[in-house]
Specification:
alpha/beta; 7-stranded parallel beta sheet; about 45% helix
Amino acid sequence: MDFTNKNVVITGGTTGIGLATAKAFISAGANVWITGRNAANLEKATTEINNPKLFTVISDTSKIDDIAILEKAVAESGNKLDVLFLNAGIATFEPIANVTEANFDAQFNTNVKGHFFTLQKLLPHLADGAAVVFTSSTVATAANSGSSVYAATKGALNKIAQIAANELAERKIRVNIVSPGPILTPGLEGAVPEEAKGYLAGATALQRIGDPDEVAKTVLFLASDAASFITGTELVVDGGYLNYALK
């Protein structure tokens, strides 16, 4: 897919799916802005990608003031955005009985409020005909123990994306959702015990955990002209996890 000279913003682009997608867009010719919460992670991503088409912005998506920093950076670039990939997210897995207000607020602030207001603030900077992609998760559909808050944030995101697809249709802006299953990212490494990884692999039809590059390819498809008649749709990238787990 060709994204030569297209302008792309990826929130949460320093590791995992965000970093893999940044690499894929740059390989396809795009100019890419990635956000991260601290300079060290952005510097590490810059070194790893090592391409002049990469630009970085220190911005915590959970904070409105930091979203304003991203908006300013985009405005000062003088470019309209062709792709907005709303990807930043955090997860804590614990039973309902153990959930604290702090963990609840942190997940909703990053995963829901952050995506909502990033989209809102960047709307004037999206080109007509642009593509927006939200990172959701199979947990929005599944009902796994310990995932109540995280699953609720992703369910909320799905509905926001579907409504955004309707509201932005008159500008020919397409809005879609990519929902990964178990993917080997630093986020999964930090949230899931080592012994659980074998279980997750065994819970997919393909009997393995996915790779961030496989999700990145899906995001590029949804953002490309190949998906020109697709909007308001959730594309699941889970190795058959949902169907297999329900057997």
